[in-house]
Amino acid sequence: MSREVEMNKDKKNDSYIEEPKNQSTGTPEKRLSITLTSDNAEYIKVATLISGESIKEYINRLIAADRANASSDTKSAMETLKGLLKRG
């Protein structure tokens, strides 16, 4: 089974971002590979067992809540930075 993947190395935090295509819809998804402390990795495993979520669902929910609670200044800065990244 093959998939299209574009990998970008983030030099600041030594993580990789993959952009596979969702085979059912053809829409791009982002895959992020990060290194966690052992305490944080264990915490996520236990928290997802308790919540019944996958790690993906758990992290996406946390990010969605963070985005919803962001100040208007933060939201404005995020939009500006996204625009700069698309041009660069």
Brief descriptors of the model:
alpha+beta, 3-stranded antiparallel β-sheet, disordered N terminus, 88 residues
Oligomer kind: single chain
Report the average pLDDT across residues: 79
Low-confidence stretches: 1-13
Helix content: 40-55%
Rg, Cα atoms, Å: 16 Å
| Helix/sheet category | alpha+beta
Number of domains: 2
- End-to-end CA span: 32 Å
The percentage of residues in β strands lies in 5-15%
Count of discrete alpha- or pi-helical segments spanning 4 or more residues: 3
Number of strands: 3
**SSE string:** EEEHHH
Shape: extended
Biggest beta sheet attributes: 3 strands, antiparallel
Strand order of the largest sheet: 1-2-3
Describe this structure in words.
The chain has 88 residues and is of the alpha+beta class. The protein has two domains: 35 residues; 52 residues, no CATH class. Helices cover 51% and strands 12% of the residues. The protein contains three helices and three strands. The chain has a three-stranded antiparallel sheet, with no helix packed on it. A hairpin with a 4-residue loop joins strand 1 and strand 2. The longest helix is centred in the C-terminal third of the chain and has 16 residues. The radius of gyration is 16 Å and the shape is extended. It starts with 6 loop residues before the first strand and ends with a helix. The N terminus is likely disordered.
